[in-house]
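Tutorial, part two.
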Amino acid sequence: MAHLLSISRAARLVGVARGALQTKIKAGELQSFDGMVEADELLRVYPGVHLDDDSELERVARIKDRAFGKRVFERSLPDKEVLAARIHEIGRELAESKGQVKFYQDLLDRFGARLGELGASEGGKIMAEQLKEWLGQELDQGVGVVPPGLAGRDSYLRVVAAQVKLLPSNREFFLEGNDTVLEAALRAGAPIGYGCSSGNCGQCRAKVVSGKIKYVRPHDYVFTEAEKNQNFALLCSCTAVTDLVVEAVVAQGPADIPFQQITAKVKAMDYPGDDVMVLQLLAPRSSRMRFMAGQSAVIRTGSFSAELPIASCPCEERLLQFHVRRMPGNHFSDYVFNRLKVGDAVEVEGPKGEFVLDDDSARSLVFIAWGSGFAPIKGLIEHALSLDAAENIHLYWAAKTAGDIYLPNQCRAWEDALDNFRYTPLVAGGAHGTSGVHWDKWLRELLQPVRQEHPDMKDLDFYVAGPEALAEATRSLLLEWGVPAGQLRVGNVA
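Running the prediction step on this input gives:
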């Protein structure tokens, strides 16, 4: 009996991105069946994977979490009731499988007896012997068709993490520890609709198509009889006991995200450089900011405001990060650097903008950040990591001086922790204005490594962010070099 795995689960078991498997399927190197992969087929393509080592699964997850600051060490196993339920479910499936094996064994015994009866006649004896020989060969080939290491590893994964599939978008993610379905979805970059996230408004209610849930948070929302009959649940208050299939609305683009106004508090103010502040805001639990990675928001503090790119990922839950440039004489900048304190209240409005990731693409990603354009690029990279869909990611951070690359350790941490991530700083030096022949030559020379290291640009998705003149000039150059227009997105940063 073939052991079938979803693409997401198969990718996690062998420690590669989903995009890597999808690329192999598209190239015909890996066979799939209705979105599923056979275990032995997976091992054929990845023969060197040690599937009996559970620590590798934990190592990959931990490395990816550390790469962009998730709370790895605060995670825990599911509570004992959920664990017991998951083990019980696996035990039930094991009992069913044993029952099927016994049924087929009995069937084979009856089949053998029937062949014996056919062989009683001289004419049927030859046919009976041929059938017995064929059946024996087939049974011999079927021995070990479910690799024990992979089956055991998959069972372990199902105990510690349930897989959730969203319809009709077909987005998939894993739910670990004591997370609710909503929390796990947001961490995985799936922008599910929600409101208060505390069980009161009902905006996150969704129909559970298959699987079992357990409520782990209190809620006041009252379901209608129709909703009860259709098996609706509050995703902010329940966790998954078994793998789930849920009908839930997922934002397909910026237009699906409503405009919001929230009051956040300053959590931290870090200074990676003399002229840059990493401002971290914490949204209240009852009114988190919904946004898509790469978008911006308006910050109002005191009597001043500015629109800034959101430098964090939606997977960071309540955390909103902004990179603020010191600009003497600018009222907003002066207020933030000279008067704002940790604990102060800040008004946030948004989100705005359409510089977002193409979640449906499995192509490898190339990011080009000019100076402070790194802020939205950082959010996009973290979102791409949470999706685990891109086979490879390459970041180029271009700046006038090495000091303008204000978070180099962040980029090196990604490169050190992730096998599929590369980071290349591009220090520009003096530029010849912002237009003209000399400036065009300077730009081409600076970005030449992008062309040399990625000759097949039509197979990649490009994201460029920075001041308008540089970002638009980079767009024109990449189009000239063969990047398809539909695979190039540009965000302008003041």
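The first helix runs from residue 7 to 14. In part three we will examine how such features are distributed along the chain.
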